[in-house]
Amino acid sequence: MKKHKLLFVNPYQHFFKGENRIAGYIHQPLAFGILAALTPKDLWDIEFVDELFEEFTYRDADLVAMTSLTSTIPRAYEIAAVYKEHGIPVVLGGVHAHMMPDEAMQYVDVVARGEAEYIWRQILDDCINKNLQKIYEGGLAKAGDLATPDHSIFDKYPYPADCIYFSRGCPMGCEFCSVTALAGASYRERPVDEIVEEFASLKRYQVFVIDDHLVNNTAKSRERAQELFTKLVKKKVKKSWTAQAAVNIGDDENLVKLISKAGCRSILIGFEAETEGKLKTVRKSLNIKRTPSYYDKILKTLNKNKITVIGAFIFCLENDTLEDLHKRHQFVTKHHFNNLQLTVLTPLPGTVVFDRIKKSGQLDQYQFPRDWEKFSFSHNLLDNPHATKEEMHEAMKKIYVSVYSKETIRRRMFRTLRDTRDFETTYGAYTLDFTISRMFIPHFIKRDDTETLQGKVVDENFHIVDRKPSLYMKITNLAMLFIYTFKWNAIVKIVSKVVFEGDIPD
């Protein structure tokens, strides 16, 4: 029997023609790995196109499946239009389609809401029988039914890291985040042995754990975490991995030590703001219980265990003044986070912030779906009582020049080396700093914007550098040459190697 053709497309909004590979984080779209695992291979041949690496061109298929963030949804609709002309059905899932199904149904044949485990096979069968419905409601899969992704579809592209998930769901309900609305307020945790086997099978040395909470906030979950990381250590899974965690990750230093032994080298923590009042505005309740002085304790605990901290903060909150932006900038600089992810408040569909902003009428100025591309955490979209969008935008440009200049990044790197005393951990933090900077510099800083750059320039790699190297950079250039020659070159070979035989170098 002839197989049917299934095409997966990961859309990417190409903001910079000719420079469309200037991107921030390049992560595997794990949803396609889950769909591939749920697809009967005896009935379907799968082809996967990720526009992060190659721009989509038309190819024939019996069914096209896409998932999309809000910022890439205009591109998803463009691709769907191509297949509509050819009479080929397109199914769209992901967070934006889940939150905005009425909009999505105007552009695609099928909207898949919720999770795929309970509806994907039905969609495929209905496609074969030419009986596709307009919308499918997947709901939330039970913990025992969560699919193990098929990672083989990612072999064709040079992703810097593999992705894995340990659980789904988040009870926090932060006002700026859509995870609780999308994945539910209860943790649904995968079996430990299943995770360990999958982790060991991954082909890349670097791994990103996509869960919002590496260690979930219940006593039972902490016991499970102990079991999971202990088994990863015993399995001798030689990976360097990054995760996300809440601020209470530093409460249990014994658990931190175990996480480090299991290979964790970097954790992103959503600190968001520096005062109790600001944290209350975004309902970041867990952080309110810990004063900003506690942040230094977290840094010290993680760093001495060879784990760096990516400090995530939100700027341009609804009640921020220009002075507040300046104070937050001073705060993140003072506390010496190993990496900084400074995003702009973005009212994503499905969040409390979105509903509030929509009711205020502020979104009426935008043309949707075209303007969804601006919802990328790097555009200030809102006026507030204290400042206009333009004033906030100008302030953020100067903050980004300060935080992501090459000299500032290098200074962070040497502090990280001092605090972790580990060259591999430091290398990961250093390269990640440049990766994060590319999330913002191309959006914010024009190369001829001399007023913002103030004597600096943006080079061809989107690094912000001094027109004339400072004395600090000249002196440390020699140190960097030594570090690369005797320490980092060997690390680069390990990090950049994709091992398809399953053997990770010692």
In short:
The protein is an alpha/beta fold. The chain is built from 20 helices and 16 strands.
Describe this structure in words.
With 506 residues, the protein is α/β, with parallel strands linked by helices. 40% of the residues lie in helices and 15% in strands. It has helices at 30-38, 73-85, 95-99, 101-104, 120-128, 179-183, 192-201, 219-235, 253-261, 276-281, 285-288, 292-303, 322-334, 352-360, 389-403, 406-420, 423-437, 441-444, 450-453, 471-496, and strands at 4-10, 44-50, 63-67, 90-93, 110-113, 135-137, 162-164, 167-168, 188-189, 206-209, 240-245, 264-272, 308-315, 339-344, 456-458, 464-466. Strand 11 (240-245), helix 9 and strand 12 (264-272) form a beta-alpha-beta unit. The model is unreliable at 15-21 and 499-506 (pLDDT under 50).
Helix content: 40-55%
SS-based class: alpha/beta
The side-by-side strand order for the widest beta sheet comes to 2-1-3-4-5-6
| Straight-line distance between termini | 46 Å
Number of continuous helical runs: 20
Kindly estimate the percentage of residues that lie in beta strands according to DSSP: 15-25%
Flag low-confidence runs: 15-21, 499-506
Q: Which value, in Å, is the CA radius of gyration?
A: 23 Å
Overall geometry: globular
Largest beta-sheet characterization: 6 strands, parallel
Number of DSSP-assigned strands: 16
Mean pLDDT: 92
Structural key phrases:
single chain; alpha/beta; disordered C terminus; 40% helix; 506 residues
Topology:
Elements: E1 4-10, H1 30-38, E2 44-50, E3 63-67, H2 73-85, E4 90-93, H3 95-99, H4 101-104, E5 110-113, H5 120-128, E6 135-137, E7 162-164, E8 167-168, H6 179-183, E9 188-189, H7 192-201, E10 206-209, H8 219-235, E11 240-245, H9 253-261, E12 264-272, H10 276-281, H11 285-288, H12 292-303, E13 308-315, H13 322-334, E14 339-344, H14 352-360, H15 389-403, H16 406-420, H17 423-437, H18 441-444, H19 450-453, E15 456-458, E16 464-466, H20 471-496
Parallel strand pairs: 1-2, 1-3, 3-4, 4-5, 5-6, 7-10, 10-11, 11-12, 12-13, 13-14
Antiparallel strand pairs: 8-9, 15-16
Helix pairs in contact: 7-8, 8-9, 13-15, 16-17
